[in-house]
Amino acid sequence: MSEVHLAVENVAIGFGGVKALDGVSLTVRKGSITSIIGPNGAGKTSLINCISGRYIPQQGRILFEGRDITRLPPARRAELRIARTFQNIALFKHMTVLDNLMAGRHALMRSGLLTCGLWWGPARREEIEHRKAVEEIIDFLEIAHVRRKPVGMLSYGMQKRVELGRALALEPRLLLLDEPMAGMNAEEKEDMVRFILDINQERGVTCVLIEHDMGVVMDISDWLAVLDFGRKIAEGTPDAVRQNPDVIRAYLGDKDLAVG
Prior knowledge:
- This protein is of the alpha/beta class.
- Helix content is about 40%, strand content about 25%.
- The chain is built from eleven helices and ten strands.
- The strands form two sheets. Strands 6-7-8-3-9-10 form a six-stranded mixed sheet, sandwiched between helices. It has a four-stranded antiparallel sheet with strand order 2-1-4-5, with helices on one face.
- The protein is globular, with a radius of gyration of 19 Å.
- The model is unreliable at about 110-120 and about 255-260 (pLDDT under 50).
């Protein structure tokens, strides 16, 4: 069995009188695609926010590669190569595609303020190396034709692709994907699925995915966790989860899918 890459242990968090997560535990194996599913308001994004450091759990802990990161700020988690995309696109709309991807390299930059300002020696060499890495991502995501365009001028589907590129610019070991295919047409979804599979299989990046398209989830996931009202109600392989009566009642609601 592959090693545990991420462990969420009995995590709980509430907002006012609402319990967004109530004692949720989850194990993510290294090199896997693990999907978190459930109806709207189930706590999926809250869980991703706890893993990425946007939220600090009120109970439980989160371990990444055996290290307790429960209270680490997001910037420190980025240094550990935990990257994410957002349900609502969070790009710098006035900046070009290239500049957005370069911004994604910030946690990997080592030159100090003085050397960067003077752009001498090590800073110049570092800039060239970061630019080379970003150009490789641009080629991988097939966005060379828009590399100099401001992100705000791009279609929604292309912006989602750029946001994936910015997360990849961190050279992540763990990639958190919050509804990367939301709002896309069928062709754009096919492209995004291909990119996610290549990132996982060819680059060896562990992926945690939130996605409402059950066809996609069942096709590409190694493991599923199902949330409902902040609690985990099931987990297992796609075949096992699709047969689970609690999941069918809470979310899938389709007997054909359950036995398909």
